[in-house]
Amino acid sequence: MGNDAESTLIKKALDGDERAFRTILERHYTLIYSVVRGIVCNPGDTEDVVQDVFIKIFRALPRFRGDARLSTWIYRIARNEALNAREKRRHMPVPIEDCEEIADDAGNPESSHRRRDAAERLARLMERLDERERQALELRYMADKSYDEIAEIMDVPLGTVKTHLYRAKLALKQMMKKPLLEKGFGEP
Questions:
Q1: How far, in Å, are 2, 126, 160, 174, 186 from residue 69 at the CA level?
Q2: 45-to-26, 88, 102 alpha-carbon distances in Å
Q3: Rounded to the nearest 5°, which phi and psi values hold at 129?
Q4: Which of 36, 40, 60, 167 has the fewest CB atoms found within 10 Å of its own CB?
């Protein structure tokens, strides 16, 4: 979508056109859902957080200045909401009736627990990456965007996207070689 068409859609949404706002959400739903799912790592919470992102976009749209592309702005909102939700849920006790979700298809809760720990470790390691490298990595592997789409969202040349992804993967590989000494990871 061109900048003029995007600007017109935003203006209509700000003027109260519900259809225009719905179009904005529909065009960015995959991006929002993928980013939230990749960070929250809990299918049951993903939809709730996505709805929170929709509300946040609705409330914040009047403050959208257009300094970045709309997709970049929406990506940041989705990412921040997902990180906030993950942090809140980390400190909440799990009701006993939800414990059956811990077991995987094979009925092996230990395997499921290891996968969840690995996902949490990866999320923590990704937080240590350079902002642009992490953003490119999330867009590529969590939001399933092509290199061209990432370049458009991040408003950078295609070569820069490839560089960000290469450096992010290299940094993650180096970090994964070292034990993570944060609470709940690595050896005590």
A1: 10, 23, 17, 32, 40
A2: 20, 12, 14
A3: -70, 160
A4: 60
20 and 13 Cβ atoms separated by less than 8 Å: yes
Question: Side-chain half-sphere of 42: how many Cα atoms within 13 Å?
Answer: 20
User: In the numeric block, which tokens belong to residue 96?
Assistant: 């006993």
Measured from the Cβ of residue 187, the count of other Cβ atoms closer than 10 Å reads: 6
Q: Is 139 helix (H, G, I), strand (E, B) or coil?
A: helix
Nearest Cα neighbor of 168 from 136, 121, 123 is 136
What structural domains does the chain harbor? 3-92 (1.10.1740.10)
Write out pLDDT tens, residues 54-113. 999 999 999 998 887 898 899 989 999 998 998 887 765 555 444 444 444 455 667 666
